[in-house]
From TrEMBL:
The chain crosses the membrane at residues 40-58. The keyword Transmembrane applies. It comes from Streptomyces spectabilis. Keywords: Membrane, Transmembrane, Transmembrane helix. This is WD40 repeat domain-containing protein.
């Protein structure tokens, strides 16, 4: 079987199975491929794999949108950096990972004594290849692998429907209703599913409890009720799985956990976890693990030692990027948890490939721990102390209102 036949049959089989891709998708891909003169079996198989994923996660588009080419396809450099931009205005990427967007946040006082934590999202506009601010009505945004689609929730949270926002057209192409309101959604690593966390109240709202005790004021609360798994291709919502937060420790002291405890995916998408506060004895995992049916389970073998690091396990499964500080981030053996290396950066965000990490950190040559909040996006390499700046510096204040928090996704 030749390469073009392999690509054509792979895509046609996927289209038949999912019902989301047009039947002539393979022919259009191969025609475009011949125009670009891309040769080699490995390249064709990679094109097939990428488009299979796209056929699952991207909503049906109109004729104009269908003809549009995502900007991220033309921005192909291995390292795309803008060290003079903070926050970045143009696409930032390294290896197989890009900055899909960022958000800024602030706490707004509400009538009656409550306080509302709000996020304002900016994401990659696939038409322009630049970051574009979204409408402030979106209280939660998560960008899918491939950066063609974002799952969005309207505020005030929790919301009773999930929007599929097309990042080429800028329009919501489909709404997925849920019976119980949700306040967080996260894409699976393969971009085929979403996990949506349900809450009875807005986890981002601090509730005024000054009537309970004079020292209380606006306090967090635990209102998570469970989660749904959603098939991104069909929009089918799975059964509701109960997963409640623990009650307050005393009658008047309020909730002593995290108000937002969203459900997220393991590295391979086979298990789910929730971030949890580490007990003072330090013996507990920083994540509570569950099966996709909501039953308690153990951490995957390669993810027991990642701490709160977003990067976690490397693509080849040989290293875990763990929590860091101004002195750098530890690299540990996923089998034993033993430290095997150290790279610059305080917050490992994502692996660019098996040997490089995108992280937040200060300049290794100037990082003394005294100015840790004046940091930037860096690309660091295993076995090296060198750090390549990807963005400009964020201001040196942890509560600066314009301080941007980067989001990443597979290219």
């Amino acid at each position: 079987m030749n390469v073009e036949q392999l690509v054509r049959e792979t895509l046609q089989e996927e289209a038949a199975a999912s019902g989301t891709a047009r039947g002539d998708l393979a022919d259009r891909v191969l025609t475009a491929r011949r125009r670009r003169n891309r040769r080699g079996a490995a390249g064709a198989v990679a094109v097939a794999a990428a488009l299979v994923a796209a056929a699952v996660t991207v909503p049906e588009l109109g004729d104009d949108a269908e003809a549009a080419s995502p900007a991220s396809e033309s921005i192909t450099g291995d390292v795309v950096a803008h060290p003079d931009q903070s926050p970045p205005r143009d696409m930032v990427a390294a290896g197989g990972t890009a900055v899909s967007g960022y958000f800024t946040s602030r706490t707004v006082k509400q009538p009656g004594g409550d306080e509302l934590f709000t996020r304002h999202y900016t994401v990659l506009d696939q038409k322009a290849g630049r970051y574009k601010a979204l409408d402030t009505k979106w209280a939660w945004v998560d960008v899918a692998p491939g950066m063609r689609t974002a799952a969005v929730l309207e505020g005030e949270l929790p919301a009773r429907r999930i929007g599929m926002l097309d990042l080429i057209t800028g329009k919501v192409e489909r709404w997925i209703p849920v019976e119980r309101p949700v306040a967080g959604v996260e894409w699976s690593p393969d971009g085929k599913r979403l996990v949506a966390t349900a809450y009875s109240k807005n986890p981002d709202r601090l509730i005024d409890r000054s009537g309970d005790h004079p020292a209380n004021g606006a306090q967090p609360h635990g209102s998570r009720t469970g989660f749904y798994l959603v098939d991104a291709g069909s929009g089918e919502v799975g059964p509701f799985r109960k997963l409640r937060q623990p009650p307050p420790s005393t009658e008047w002291s309020g909730y002593d956990g995290n108000p937002r405890e969203d459900v997220d995916w393991s590295h391979d998408g086979t298990k789910l976890y929730v971030e949890q506060l580490k007990p003072s004895n330090g013996k507990s995992d920083s994540r509570a693990w569950y099966t996709t049916s909501g039953a308690k389970t153990t951490a995957p073998a390669g993810e027991r030692f990642g701490g709160w690091s977003r990067a976690g396990l490397s693509p080849d499964g040989k290293l875990v990027a763990s929590d860091g500080d101004s002195g750098g981030s530890r690299l540990v053996d996923p089998r034993t948890g033993k430290k095997v290396g150290l790279v610059p950066g305080m917050q490992p965000l994502a692996w660019a490939d098996n040997k490089r990490l995108i992280t937040i950190g200060c300049d290794p040559k100037k990082c003394s721990g005294k100015n840790e909040f004046r940091n930037q996006l860096l690309l660091v390499t295993v076995g090296s102390k060198k750090a390549v700046p990807l963005s400009g510096f964020r201001k040196a204040s942890s509560d600066y209102l314009g301080r941007w928090v980067p989001l990443t996704a597979a290219r």
